[in-house]
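Subject: for your reference before the review

Hello V.,

The reviewers asked for a structural picture of the protein, and I figured it would be easier to keep everything in one thread rather than splitting it across files. Below is the amino acid sequence we used in the manuscript, unchanged from the supplementary table.
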Amino acid sequence: MFSSHIFFLCFIFFLEEKKQYLFVKLNFGFAQKYLHRSLMMLDFFKIVQGLQNIIFGFYQMHEISTYLQLQGTLQKKLNQQTPSAISFWLGFAN
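And here is what came back from the structure prediction:
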C-alpha cells in the first residue's frame, strides 16, 4: 500500500512535470476521483479558451469586413468625384 502511494506521488509529479493530460485508471478511489476532476476541469478550461478564441476570431473578422466595406465605400465616392475634379482642373488650366 505504501509503495502504491509513492508510485502515485511520482506519477503525479511526472504529469505535472511533462504537462501531459492523461486519463489514468488508479487503484484507490480518492486519487482516481481527484485526477478525473482535475482533468475534467482542464478540459473545461480548454473548451472555454477555445470558445473565447472563436468569438474573438469572429469579432476580428467583423472588424476587418467593416473596414473593407468602409474602404470600398470611400473608393466608390473617390471614383465618383474624380471625373468632376479632373474636369474642374482641366477647365481651370484652360
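For the response letter, the relevant points are probably these. Residues 13 and 19 are 10 Å apart (CA to CA). The chain has one domain: 2-67.

Happy to draft the paragraph if you're swamped.

O.
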